[in-house]
Structures are given as structure tokens and as C-alpha cells.
Amino acid sequence: MSQAVEAVRFPETAALHRNQVRAILALELRKNLFGWPALVIYLLACLPVLAMCGYVLVALLVRDARSTLGVDNAGAFGQFYSAWVFRFSVRFVAFFGCVAVFTNLFRGEIAERSLHYYLLAPLRREVLAVGKYLAGVLTTGTVFTGATVVSYLLLYVPSPRLFESHFLGGPGLSHLAAYAGITWLACLGYGAVFMLVGLVVKNPVIPAAFVFLWEGINAFLPALLQKVSIIHYLYALSPVPLAVGPLALIGEPISAWVAVPGLLLVCAALLGASALMVRRIEIRYGSD
């Protein structure tokens, strides 16, 4: 007499989901840090650092180089870094680094015909989306924040006296913490955008170009449209006000108490949309 075999079901708990997210993080971090996207983000992260190394070389070799470059006091140092180096780091380095990493989180698995291993595992697809997103944020946030810290410190290397006064007796450490925090928020925001893009379209080039253009003209848009962007909230957090040019439309400034929660809410909404897309995803390797 045969007996029916009842399938064993494990209760889904918050602890189980946390363990699954940690397991996904471990797998994804290895791929992100040592796969081909890692080469892209490492090269991008080197750009602001190499630019500041060039500045240090010029400042040390050329007499009165800091005055020649218009950087000869603490205020000018801050304006120079905020207007040129940090803006480039956020608008170009972090942006395209997130494009490379986050659009590849699911699209790369489909191209490599390996996504079905995740989908066959006994885990919720929302957990998979969260795990992959957090791995992308940790990858890009760590690498690009490191580049931000190094480039900011290099700015003050040619002037030891100013370095000491700025970091020990001035706002240097708070400014450095603000720039590091903005870099992490940039990775959170752009990561959420491009993870969703990678799930919606096969070729992210055109959407990425559109978002890049939209972010670039943000300062010239009406106040309402300015809020429909990531860069609007990031620039509002800059410890040194950014010059936006005479043609820019100056809207009502937003405080950090509004910018940070607002950006986090946008990230949560985009991540929820990505989780919904992952929940409905179907594997058809033959059509890709």
C-alpha cells in the first residue's frame, strides 16, 4: 500500500529572506568585482583620480601653479573641486558606472543563459531583485566613493598648510563626508533607474543616452520638471553651492531633509517596479 509523499514546505520568514539576500550578495559581488563590468567601473573610477594626480604634478612642478589655475585659498579649492572634479564624478563616472553594472544584473544573466538557475531556486523573485540591487549598490558605491575620497584629498596635497587647516580646523572632514554620501546616493538613484531599464529593454544605449541628456539639461528645465531627475537632489546636497550658469532656471532650493528622503522614496518605487518585472520575467533564451 503506497503512501502519498507530501512536499516539505519551509516557512518563509524574515530571517530566511535575509539569509537568501546575503547568499545572493556573496555571489553577485564576486561577479561585479571580478567580471567584465568591474573593468569598466575601475577605469571610470580612475578618471577623477588621474585628473587630480595631474593637478598635483602641475602644482608641484610649476611655480605659482595654484594661482595660475585659480586655486589659491580654501574657498577656491572647494569651488574648483565641486564645480569640476565632483560634478564630473557624479555626472559621468557614477552615471556610466551604474549603466554598466545595473543594466547587466539581469540582462547579462539572460545573455549568459544562467538566470534560470536563480529562478529555479526556492526563493521569492522580489528577494532576488533586492539582493542583486544591493550587490550593485555596494559595488559601485564602494569603488566610486573611494575615488571621491582620494580625489578630494589629492586636491590639498600641494598645500600642506591648507590641508592641515582645512581638515583639522575647518570643514574639510564634513565636506568629505558630504561628497562621499552624495556618491552613495548617486549609486542608489542611478542604480535603481538602470536596473529597471535593464529589465524593460534589451538595448540600454538609447534609454541611457536619454537619461544622460535629461540630467544634463536639468538646470534649464522648469522647476516642476527639475524634480523628475536624480541630479536635482544630488546637487542640492553639495556642501559647496554649484554654479549652474546664467541661463539656468533657479527653482526653490530644497533642503537635505527633503532631498534625501525624496531620493530614497524614488529608489524604493523604482526597485518595487523592478521586483514586479522580475516576478513576471520569462526565460526565452532562443529569442535573445
What does this structure look like?
- This protein has 288 residues and is an all-alpha fold.
- It has one domain (16-281).
- 73% of the residues lie in helices and 0% in strands.
- It contains 13 helices and no strands.
- The chain has helices at 14-34, 36-61, 65-68, 74-102, 104-111, 115-120, 125-155, 160-168, 172-200, 205-216, 223-226, 231-236, 256-280.
- Helix 2 packs parallel to helix 7 (125-155) and helix 7 runs antiparallel to helix 13.
- The N and C termini lie far apart (49 Å).
Query: What are the segments in which pLDDT stays under 50 over at least 5 consecutive residues?
Result: 1-8
Mean pLDDT, nearest integer? 85
**How many β-strand runs?**
0
Biggest sheet statistics:
none
Question: Given the C-alpha coordinates, what overall shape results?
Answer: globular
Number of domains: 1
Radius of gyration: 22 Å
Structural class: mainly alpha
- Give the CA-CA distance, first to last residue: 49 Å
Helix content: over 70%
* N to C succession of SSEs: HHHHHHHHHHHHH
Strand content: under 5%
How many alpha or pi helices? 13
Present the secondary structure layout.
Blueprint: H1 14-34, H2 36-61, H3 65-68, H4 74-102, H5 104-111, H6 115-120, H7 125-155, H8 160-168, H9 172-200, H10 205-216, H11 223-226, H12 231-236, H13 256-280
Helix pairs in contact: 1-2, 1-7, 2-4, 2-7, 4-7, 4-9, 4-10, 7-9, 7-13, 9-13
